C-alpha cells in the first residue's frame, strides 16, 4: 500500500474572486470516478471556487474536452482511471493522455491538475481515489488552483519596487 507519511502539501491558495474550474472526468470505472470527483469538489469548495463537471467516455478524451473548453474556465481538473489489462492499450492511454495534458499546460498555458490514475489493480485505484485515503482527486484540484495562483501572480503588472509575491502571501488577485 502506498504511504503518505513523508509527503508535504502546500497550503491551498486563496482568491479574492472565485475562479471558474472545470472538472473533466472519465467515468469508465464509475466507483473510482465518483471518489475522485468528490475529492476534487471538496478541495474546490474549500477554496471558494465555482466548478462544473463534464464527463467524457475515457481518459484519451479528457485533454480534448479541456481544449474545447479552455476559453470558458480559469483552470481544469482531469480525473479518470486506467487499470492495466492484457494488452498494450494501457501504455497508449497512459502515455497519450498524460502527454496531451502536459502539452495543454506547457504550450497553451492552461492551469490543470492531472488526476488520471494509472494503476495495476482496482484496489490500488480505490486507495488513491478515496478522499479519506490518498485523495488524488483533491490533490489534482489543488494542483490546478496552485497553477492558477501562479498564473495570476505572474500576470500582474510589475510595480518596479521588487514586489515579488512569495509563498504564504495571503490573497491572489484576479486575471
From TrEMBL:
<dbReference type="GO" id="GO:0005829">
    <property type="term" value="C:cytosol"/>
</dbReference>
<dbReference type="InterPro" id="IPR034964">
    <property type="entry name" value="LS"/>
</dbReference>
<feature type="binding site">
    <location>
        <begin position="59"/>
        <end position="61"/>
    </location>
    <ligand>
        <name>5-amino-6-(D-ribitylamino)uracil</name>
    </ligand>
</feature>
<feature type="binding site">
    <location>
        <begin position="86"/>
        <end position="87"/>
    </location>
    <ligand>
        <name>(2S)-2-hydroxy-3-oxobutyl phosphate</name>
    </ligand>
</feature>
<feature type="binding site">
    <location>
        <position position="114"/>
    </location>
    <ligand>
        <name>5-amino-6-(D-ribitylamino)uracil</name>
    </ligand>
</feature>
<dbReference type="GO" id="GO:0000906">
    <property type="term" value="F:6,7-dimethyl-8-ribityllumazine synthase activity"/>
</dbReference>
<feature type="binding site">
    <location>
        <position position="28"/>
    </location>
    <ligand>
        <name>5-amino-6-(D-ribitylamino)uracil</name>
    </ligand>
</feature>
<comment type="similarity">
    <text>Belongs to the DMRL synthase family.</text>
</comment>
<protein>
    <recommendedName>
        <fullName>6,7-dimethyl-8-ribityllumazine synthase</fullName>
        <ecNumber>2.5.1.78</ecNumber>
    </recommendedName>
</protein>
<keyword id="KW-0808">Transferase</keyword>
<dbReference type="GO" id="GO:0009349">
    <property type="term" value="C:riboflavin synthase complex"/>
</dbReference>
<keyword id="KW-0686">Riboflavin biosynthesis</keyword>
<feature type="active site" description="Proton donor">
    <location>
        <position position="89"/>
    </location>
</feature>
<dbReference type="Pfam" id="PF00885">
    <property type="entry name" value="DMRL_synthase"/>
</dbReference>
<feature type="binding site">
    <location>
        <position position="128"/>
    </location>
    <ligand>
        <name>(2S)-2-hydroxy-3-oxobutyl phosphate</name>
    </ligand>
</feature>
<dbReference type="GO" id="GO:0009231">
    <property type="term" value="P:riboflavin biosynthetic process"/>
</dbReference>
<comment type="function">
    <text>Catalyzes the formation of 6,7-dimethyl-8-ribityllumazine by condensation of 5-amino-6-(D-ribitylamino)uracil with 3,4-dihydroxy-2-butanone 4-phosphate. This is the penultimate step in the biosynthesis of riboflavin.</text>
</comment>
<feature type="binding site">
    <location>
        <begin position="81"/>
        <end position="83"/>
    </location>
    <ligand>
        <name>5-amino-6-(D-ribitylamino)uracil</name>
    </ligand>
</feature>
<dbReference type="InterPro" id="IPR036467">
    <property type="entry name" value="LS/RS_sf"/>
</dbReference>
<comment type="pathway">
    <text>Cofactor biosynthesis; riboflavin biosynthesis; riboflavin from 2-hydroxy-3-oxobutyl phosphate and 5-amino-6-(D-ribitylamino)uracil: step 1/2.</text>
</comment>
<dbReference type="InterPro" id="IPR002180">
    <property type="entry name" value="LS/RS"/>
</dbReference>
